[in-house]
């Protein structure tokens, strides 16, 4: 979800990002800095429209993990080649 548990988008069950430094270690620099990480892994778990329709009609009869078992996970890695800023 979005901030404070608000829905971010329909059928999105999980969304998170992981920043990494040049050595592939988790990036521990505060998000308030103006520096960029070396790269960012983005993960998105999304349920199909059909699975959501079935779940909304039969949620009491389905196992609690029905949506996650019928979801797809998408991930990508975004590199920041100019993460140190422009130089003279």
Structure overview:
It is elongated, with a radius of gyration of 18 Å. The chain is an alpha+beta fold and 88 residues long. The N and C termini lie far apart (41 Å). It contains two helices and three strands; from the N terminus they run E-E-H-H-E. It is 16% helix and 31% strand. It has a three-stranded antiparallel β-sheet. The longest helix is centred in the middle third of the chain and has 10 residues, at 49-58.
In short:
With 88 residues, the chain is α+β, with helices and mostly antiparallel strands.
Question: Which SSEs are present, and which pair or pack?
Answer:
Layout: E1 12-20, E2 39-47, H1 49-58, H2 66-69, E3 71-79
Antiparallel strand pairs: 1-2, 2-3
Could you give the order of strands across the largest sheet? 1-2-3
**Extended strand count:** 3
Number of helices: 2
Calculate Rg over CA atoms: 18 Å
Helix content: 10-25%
> What is the N-to-C succession of helices and strands?
EEHHE
Largest sheet: 3 strands, antiparallel
Secondary structure category: alpha+beta
Distance between the termini: 41 Å
Averaged pLDDT, please? 82
Uncertain ranges = none
Beta content comes to 25-35%
Overall outline: elongated
Features:
88 residues; alpha+beta; three-stranded antiparallel β-sheet; 16% helix; elongated
């Amino acid at each position: 979800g979005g901030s404070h548990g608000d829905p971010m988008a329909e059928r999105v069950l999980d969304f998170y990002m992981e920043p990494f430094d040049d050595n592939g270690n988790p990036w521990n620099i505060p998000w308030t800095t103006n520096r960029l990480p070396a790269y960012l892994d983005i993960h998105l778990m999304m349920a199909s429209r059909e699975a959501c329709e079935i779940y909304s009609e039969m949620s009491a009869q389905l196992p609690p993990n029905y949506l996650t078992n019928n979801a797809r996970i998408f991930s990508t890695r975004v590199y920041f080649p100019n993460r140190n800023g422009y130089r003279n």
